[in-house]
Write a structure and sequence with these properties.
Shape: globular
CATH superfamily: Zn-dependent exopeptidases
Protein name: N-formylglutamate amidohydrolase
Order of helices and strands: EEHHEEEHEEHEHEH
Number of helices: 6
Strand content: 15-25%
Radius of gyration: 17 Å
Helix content: 25-40%
Pfam family, one: FGase
Organism: Croceicoccus pelagius
Largest sheet: 7 strands, mixed
Strand order of the largest sheet: 1-3-2-6-9-7-8
Structural class: alpha/beta
Number of strands: 9
InterPro entries: N-FG_amidohydro, UCP029730
CATH architecture: 3-Layer(aba) Sandwich
Length: 240
Amino acid sequence: MSFIPYRRIGEPKAGGIVLVSDHAGNAVPEGIELGVSAETMDSHIAVDIGVEGVAERMARRHGIPAFLATISRLVVDLHREEDHPGMIPQESDGKLIVGNIGADRDMRLAKFYRPYHTAMERWLDAAQPRLIISLHSFTPSLESKPEQERPWEVGLLYNTNSEPARHAIRLFAAQGLTVGDNEPYSGRELNATMNRHAEAKGRDYLAIEVRNDQIATEAGQARWAALIADVAQRTVLAMG
């Protein structure tokens, strides 16, 4: 049986809110050797820590269906364009991914990357959602740049469609949170999945980055699932 690089939780309702996450899993398909430790596979360079737990709760407790990657970003980074040099990373946050040197790029595109995005496209086309949540997490600082602390508890990323993010920034800030506006990354530079599945199709979205120390525990995941669900619902109401 071939490896399936995604899984779905819940059934979308037309005009509702859905969630997608490109870095929710850390599975490595049979036959691929990355040459990194098990500890590395549980770290932020292999998976967005806490995101799967938040997404599970949003789908099962808050009625926001989810489309989640199962494959590790070290095998293929689904949140990059096909021709992006980092789509199969050879280095991440100072760690060499030796198994990716000379990797079969075409094979990974054909077996994992394209099936993931094709399935997401069909899922979204069938759902015609009012709002897409794209969920990621980030580290308080990078191991390779420990002096550069990231003070934001949550960040909203966007490229050309900033209206939903503006509402969400205001709503998160009203909860007393430190909110990043196109931080810790700029959506004008790193927005591949939402550029493809949202902006290109005129769909509204919230690209949300949660600092991973906030969602490292089950309690934190439950708190943020409720918080994000509430902000997303109020964002929809604010947009009319």
